Amino acid sequence: MKVAASRGHIHVLVHSGVTDDLLIPYQEMVWKLDKKTLRWSFVESLEPPRVVHARTTDILSKENVYAQVTVRFHTKQVGRTKGIFTGTF
Hints:
This protein folds into two domains: 1-35, no CATH class; 36-89, no CATH class. It is 12% helix and 62% strand. The protein has one helix spanning 20-30; strands at 2-6, 9-13, 37-59, 61-82. The longest helix is centred in the N-terminal third of the chain and has 11 residues, at 20-30.
């Protein structure tokens, strides 16, 4: 699943391999997000980022190498939403 933001709107591009276990909670989370105010803040990093997996493979030729790296971030964050009809966060 890819998420692209443009002009304050969030667009979700879903690939055919995404299961309902992942898609439905995500759709509920961003439902009518364009009608809400989303406030997010980074509080602190609890530990340094750590590479947990890395791999490379050749695509089409030996000169064209594709790399995928998975990095674990352990952070403290705060997120709040405010709807049109609710006056508090």
